[in-house]
Amino acid sequence: MTRAVVPAASLALTALLGCMDAAMSGGPAPRPPAVRPAARAPAPAPALLAPEDAPAAPLPEIAEERAALPVFLEPPTVQVRLAAARPGKDISFTVHGAYRVFELKGSLEDGALGPLLAAGDGLKRARARAAREGVVMNGELLAGKSLLVCPRNDGALEVDGRRYRGDLALLASPGLELAAVNRVDIEDYVAGVLFGEMPKRFAKEAQRAQAVAVRTYALYHVLNGRVLSDDQGSQVYRGTELESDAARRIADSTVGEVLTHADRLVQAYFHSTCGGATGSAAEVFCVPAAGQVLAGAACPSCRDSPHFAWTRGVPPGVIAGLYNGAFGQALTFDVASRDPAGRALEVAVLDAAGRQVDRLPADRFRNRYNAGRPLAEQIPSAMIDEVRRAGLELRIKGRGFGHGVGLCQYGANGMAHAGGSYQDILGRYYPGAQIRRLYD
Ligand SMILES: [Zn+2]
Known about the structure:
The chain contains 9 helices and 24 strands. By secondary structure, it is of the alpha+beta class. Helix 2 crosses helix 3. The longest helix has 20 residues.
């Protein structure tokens, strides 16, 4: 594969009031980068919500740059972290059929292979762990801090009972942790992710729009030097488990298509239900680079979503628990600022006397509140219409499910049923973006 990678521009943070602590919360970028890392490789991929039955995602981390577009002569690969083992612990995997194991020189992005270290036919429940001198596989020390296990047959890898296409990289850290990373063709990845992120019953044009968003989102992070996670932290990926002929046909019908703006990939967020209007990434996530493509749009098409309107009760003491009782037990909250569509941007936390003890981005508050709470008790979105006292409880009324930025999945489905094409759908939710085919 030949790629000309232009370093992504590093953009300055905007000092949006109330956003800075979210902006500074990013953890270290996971290793290894998929392609040449940008000047500043920020935090792991922002969170997305699966449309249904998914735990609410954590607050997306800030992105400080946008990936520049390389030239692809063939479909690129995506790197997805499947498992990790602490020092001294094993990662277990299986290869069905013939395989070879190479030393991986440098990083996955370079993809340079060292010597052949092992080969065979069938590897059942192999165990690998990191050691000072190399990776130990089934009790045998293989020289090399990182290995690439290459099955001869497609879909012959198995990790945690799931089958995967592509190769498996075993990457040892200096602290002797070991990560198992699936290196997979992006089109296989899109076919595998599609029905993890959108119900199969949705209209085909909505699915095509979703496929373009999934591909763009993955490639955006690949080009920013990140390894994706296999859960809502990036996009839900279960190897071949959720693949189907239908998913493959949808991926094929949009092969290579991504969303771009000003010759850069769009950070193609999506969510289940916006509740009437999508939000601005800059305001919701404090992502300064988001621009007009993620500025928010009216959405009259998600009214049929089961998540369109909701009410929740907040039991007494729960808000106080978020602050470990530091401000007493009678804390409440209210919306402190909204965008023009009514989405809460900031939340004020109030003590028993009504004094403000904290003010924070609404999505950050929501994710803090939701952490560890059953889905049915979570605050589904920041489109909060009303917060009122009902005895000792707070009653909240709101609309939508998910962070509300980018493509609204139920809205996309509504548009498709009304005759909209996937281009129409993407045009509404990523206004000003172009659909470009990067490879065939
Ligand atoms: Zn919507």
